[in-house]
Design brief:
The strands form 2 sheets. A 5-stranded parallel sheet has the order 1-2-4-6-9, sandwiched between helices. A 4-stranded mixed sheet has the order 3-5-7-8. It is built from 16 helices and 9 strands. Helices cover about 45% and strands about 10% of the residues.
């Protein structure tokens, strides 16, 4: 299965993928499903321009329904009965991460880049991020979601976001061979699939400057109870350090530029997600994102898209403008149900048998 418009994640493509996944799952002739993208980007996220338009024109309930289809697709893939192999050769962010990172086999290359930079555009890391990021070592998930920091393919395998690293090499030769070998399998059993992928997998080392060598420091800073405390501890370290670390400087810069209310929404969400099943995390994402589209509390989504994507001045006017102006009551509002008489309904995920737990961190 190949996605032909990998740069964004449109409603018709979500519908097409959902129908295809269901058809293949029910086809007795299909033993496993391989998913890849045609192009240099695997999937860089949802169609935020359409969401922006719907929110701006008051059609937020329509956008919420489209978004719920995306969450339902993510849940279908995460609970898929048959083995699914994602070949992630390029950028995987936002909606692309929600689609692929709960699958059983997640193959990355030297071209793969992962990030969840939503807070920079007035949203928050969603599509189940509170589930898959909270399963990473320590408080690495908080760091990735609050700063939008990027990880390469090697780092994704090391922390557990990916399961295998296969160099793409010239003209994606290795990936083509891997795909051919998987197609030629007689029996699609986990041990057989694992053995085939392992033939093409390379053992690679983290670079010396990888942030994953700083996990003790990440845990120290990002285990704090509030966003304010996290940012303050980073600033204190930066001010008093003899030799400033680049990842700390970048973290401070990113968090100060991001939407204050969405930083707090994400921290609340991932702290809940650490102790919840995927279904609860997706249901919460549906509620939160519906409130964001409805502009129940803040216009930050509109401000962020306008500044970063439409006008490209990269100077969004956040409201509230500072972390200390974002109250707990504001954040809690995003967890509430919206009246159904406004055209909104709670996310209803189909009953599924949960698949075997995927392996996580190799650190």
């Amino acid at each position: 299965m190949a996605t032909n418009k990998p740069s964004n994640y449109e409603d018709d493509q979500v519908l097409q993928l959902s129908e295809e996944f269901q058809k293949l799952e029910n086809d007795p002739a299909v033993g496993l499903v391989i998913v890849k993208a045609n192009g240099k980007v695997f999937c860089a996220g949802g169609d935020v321009i359409e969401y922006y338009r719907c929110s701006l024109t008051g059609e937020w309930a329509l956008a919420a329904k489209i978004y719920q289809k995306q969450l339902t697709l993510d849940y279908l893939v995460a609970t898929y009965i048959k083995p699914v192999v994602f070949l992630i050769n390029g950028a995987v962010m936002g909606g692309g991460a929600g689609l692929s990172l709960n699958a059983r086999y997640r193959v990355v290359t030297e071209n793969t880049v992962f990030a969840m930079p939503e807070a920079a555009i007035g949203h928050y890391p969603d599509v189940g991020a509170s589930y898959f990021l909270s399963k990473l070592p320590g408080f690495l998930g908080e760091y990735l979601g609050l700063t939008g920091a990027r990880l390469n393919g090697v780092e994704m395998v090391a922390c557990g976001l990916a399961t295998h690293f296969v160099p793409s090499k010239v003209l994606f030769h290795n990936l083509l061979l891997l795909e051919k070998s998987l197609h030629e399998m007689d029996v699609a059993e986990p041990n057989t699939i694992q053995g085939i992928i392992n033939k093409y997998t390379h053992q690679v080392q983290l670079k010396e400057d990888s942030v994953l060598h700083r996990l003790n420091f990440i845990d120290h800073f990002f285990s704090k109870q509030t966003v304010e405390e996290i940012l303050s501890s980073l600033e204190h370290e930066n001010e008093n350090a003899t030799l400033k670390e680049e990842w700390i400087t970048k973290s401070i810069r990113s968090m100060k530029a991001a939407s204050p209310i969405n930083l707090k929404i994400f921290l609340m969400s991932i702290r809940k997600g650490r102790f919840e099943p995927l279904e609860d995390c997706l249901t919460r994402d549906s509620r939160i994102s519906s409130h964001i589209l409805r502009r129940t509390v803040s216009n930050d989504f509109l401000a962020g898209i306008k500044a970063t994507i439409l006008e490209k001045n990269y100077k969004p006017k956040w409201e509230p403008s500072k972390l200390e102006l974002v109250s707990n009551d504001m954040v809690e509002t995003y967890l509430t149900k919206i009246p159904e008489n406004e055209g909104w309904k709670e996310l209803q995920l189909p009953p599924r048998d949960m698949r075997e737990k995927a392996p996580r961190a190799k650190l």
